[in-house]
Amino acid sequence: MDDYKRMAVFAAVVQHGSMSAAARALGMSPSAVSQQVRQLERDGGVTLLHRSTRQIALTDTGERYYQQCAAMAQAASQARAELAAARDEPGGELRLSATVGFARHIAPALGHWLARHPALRLHLDVDDAPIDLIQSRIDLALRFGRLADSGWAARRLGAMRNWLCASPAWLQAQGGGAAWRHPAPLASMRWLGLAREGQGQALRAEARHPDTGETYSLQVLPHVASNNQLSIQQMCEAGLGLALLGSMDVADTVAEGRLVRLLPDWDFGGLDIWAVTPQRQAQPAKVRQAIAALQAYLARLPGVVDAPAPA
Length: 311
What we know:
- By secondary structure, the chain is an alpha+beta fold.
- It is built from ten helices and 14 strands.
């Protein structure tokens, strides 16, 4: 490291034409600058500069050495500029991880922002399984629910509620479901559920009535199980049974009448929405701005609750 510093000092002396001018530019004393140059000459066993009381001149060896030192200083300056640009202006590749269900939101959430930054490339990794952000070189991941204590940085973007849903056709086959006011009769119905590794085959749900405070625990064996939430939603729309679905995913579907929300007076819990990054400090502009764009999108998305206001 000392050699690199001495090379930078030597290049500054040549560029500024004197030890004193280089010292002022570098914030050093003239004697310290002179000492750095002399140490270079001692280490190399050569003379780099001819010195007089009024001026300095490069030797032949010094001229060749200066070209290398100047190139090194320019490369270092360029590297610093690129670091500053990464901090202030999005560029390079943004590696983003999202669940299958959330992937459809990436284009409307980030499309306009990406269009404004043509130097930025997006790599989207879509997978419901947990991944190691470091090993997969992920800059930003969208995650739901309780986060593992990984040491990664996380920012809460909002939450979605669990809605109990069924298709109009399925409800009609059950007699319409208009008389259902309590979760208890649903235990004997045909359920669709998310299969999670290590959690057994049973589907468990906790329901609470906000007005009365009554709680009810539901445990059923799904007739159809999948490790993909989007598949569960599609099968629910196809009339295969009841399902607990994320409000963010089905708010539009319910509004369009393709699904019906059941027992809306009961709270079936929900999941927080998180932006997770592998580092806490010095986030590059591409990550900071992507999080801001996602936050703004979720704040206006039907079915998302408790979303913080965009900065």
